[in-house]
Amino acid sequence: MIILGIETSCDETAVSVCRNGEILSNTVSSQLIHNSYGGVVPEIASREHEKLLNIVVDKSLGEAGINLADVDAVAVTQGPGLAGTLLTGISFAKGLAMGLNIPLIPVNHLEAHIFANFLVDPTLEYPFVCLLVSGGHTQLWHIKNMDSYTLLGETRDDAAGEAFDKGARILGLGYPGGPAIETEAIGGNPDAVHFPRGLMGNDSLEFSYSGLKTSLLYFMDDFKENVSISKNDVAASYQQAIVDSLVEKMNRAVYQTKSKTCVIAGGVAANKTLRICSREKLANIRILFPDLSFCTDNGAMVSFLGEVKLNAGYTTNIEFGAQPNLKMATS
Ligand code: KG4
Ligand code: ZN
To answer: Which helix (H) or strand (E) covers residue 13, if one does?
Structure first.
């Protein structure tokens, strides 16, 4: 079976071809136009998707060596995400599926991030814990089976990716903030500044990053680079505060659910310090991280999950719409 996956939940125009669980192409056009605004401008993002979708689909089919006529189904991100960008992708996907007279499968973006871990290791077995860390979400899930997910905890305010993005803005670094802070932190001392780690008490599996961001803001008010503290040190310390709380809560979730496997999903999973610290702290647990190209928003996770859903017998009516606040069903 050949599935064409389309992802337009934010500012990546991403398309992929999946054949029988194998990713044949994973094509992404990142909209660099937003960098100069320090964040994604929704209206511009929708218009860019509209311009780019045809081109990226053609490129992805070419890279996969597949003709449009060979595609058996189209999968598209239904939500969560920006209303306008989701609508652009869904409208395009509907046109394609109707024109080809093939099924169209709506995919939950969060679930797709989690399922990207089956691309790392197809033998991944339920149950497992998932730390889902993206620009809009920071959640801990107990994934017991396909469609049987329990939310163990989530952020009370900012998401971890958002903390990176806002921190980068305060530090005068670029957007997206995660890679910018990661680069700035190279060679910096992560213990140079002690930033707060939110909600560390008791057995809490919840996260909080708004205090951390405020703390950085106040720190930078008086900060001048000097011989004892450089900007690299500040970036490294800020990054470490985010990573420490993620790793601690992940460890608690694994312990509380008595899990043997933990997977990490979403854009922040690309962070190397998070990867290293998780492996150190959860040394006896099997930890999976998607390849970098499957961490940040991509079409592969959509085409792959679309195929999983189709194989599991999911059908849908083509009249579905974009759901900017789509949640994962919890049980
Ligand atoms: O999953 P994703 O691509 O989009 C959403 O669904 O939100 O995640 C984007 C987030 C951004 O906040 C970005 O700063 C963060 O992931 N990110 C990173 C890294 N690469 C992307 N955060 C930390 N370190 C990275 N290397
Ligand atoms: Zn995402």
So the answer is: strand 12-19
Summarize pLDDT for 257-267 with one digit per residue, the tens.
999 999 999 99
Give the ligand 1 atom nearest the CA of 239.
Answer: 23
Same domain, 15 and 143: no
- Which residues does a 6 A CB cutoff place in the pocket of ligand 1? 10, 134-136, 161, 164-165, 176-179, 182, 266-268, 270-271, 296-297
CA of 27 to the centre of ligand 1 (A): 18
Residue 302 Cα to ligand 2 middle (Å) = 11
Which range marks the domain in which residue 103 is found? 2-113+297-311
Q: Are residue 76 and residue 177 in the same domain, yes or no?
A: no
SS (H, E, C) 17-78: EEECCEEEEEEEEECHHHHHHCCCCHHHHHHHHHHHHHHHHHHHHHHHCCCHHHCCEEEEEE
Once rounded to an integer, what is the mean pLDDT over residues 260-278? 97
Model confidence, pTM: 0.94
Structure confidence at residue 324 as a pLDDT band (50, 70, 90): very high
Strand, helix or coil for residue 262: strand
Which ligand ends up closest to the CA of 178? 1
CATH of the domain at 244: 3.30.420.40
Between the CA of 122 and the centroid of ligand 2 the distance, in Å, is 21
Average pLDDT, integer, range 89-104: 97
Q: Is a pLDDT exceeding 90 seen at residue 37?
A: no
- Phi and psi for 286 in degrees, rounded to 5? -80, 120
Distance from the alpha carbon of residue 135 to the mean position of ligand 2, in angstroms: 7
